[in-house]
Amino acid sequence: MKPFVRPYLEEDQDAVYDVCVRTGAASSDARGLYRTDDLVPDIYAGAYLLIEPELAFVLDNGERAVGYIIGTADTRRFVRAYRDRWIPRMRERYVEPSPEADPVTEEDRKLAVMFSPESMLRPELAPYPAHLHINLLPDYQRRGFGRVLMTEFLAAAARHGAAAAYLAVYPSNTGARAFYASLDWHEVPSSEPDRFTYLAKATT
User: Fold this and answer.
1) Which of 21, 25, 43, 120 has the most CB atoms in a 10 Å sphere around its CB?
2) For the chain, which residues score pLDDT lower than 50?
């Protein structure tokens, strides 16, 4: 069966988490890097599946999800929901770092990201209310599936009222940057130093 894109279903969560951690180190495998392999997907996937599952789509190979795109049509609203609905769940799994403590390890930095969703609200990103995350297992990359996932998400975000979207990419992830450039995503100048480069695009 040829892989196909379809809406996310609740039973896809484990597969989405698997894809997320296996591509969670700048598109490389993040398994074994932290005390739990759920850390990366708990930061970058779980909240979207809970809060806006209608904007989640997966690439299905006939057996399971092998890629996905998730996001929100309204980042400001999503941040509020993340704090109200997701962080209480995360406090049951992780120790929230003190705001005054400087991160020492990469895991500390990940936890700081998890518990500070307001960091998504950068002023230069305000014109782009939607944002997204997209990941595919290596065997399904560079085969046109990412383009199909992106088309599905942007159309759905437009239907939900978002005129434009942004995403974040590590500057060192040259493969991902080339993919986004091929889809006409443009760089957004940063208002302050950040570990990511931000790219944006109209939804229609």
Assistant:
1) 21
2) none
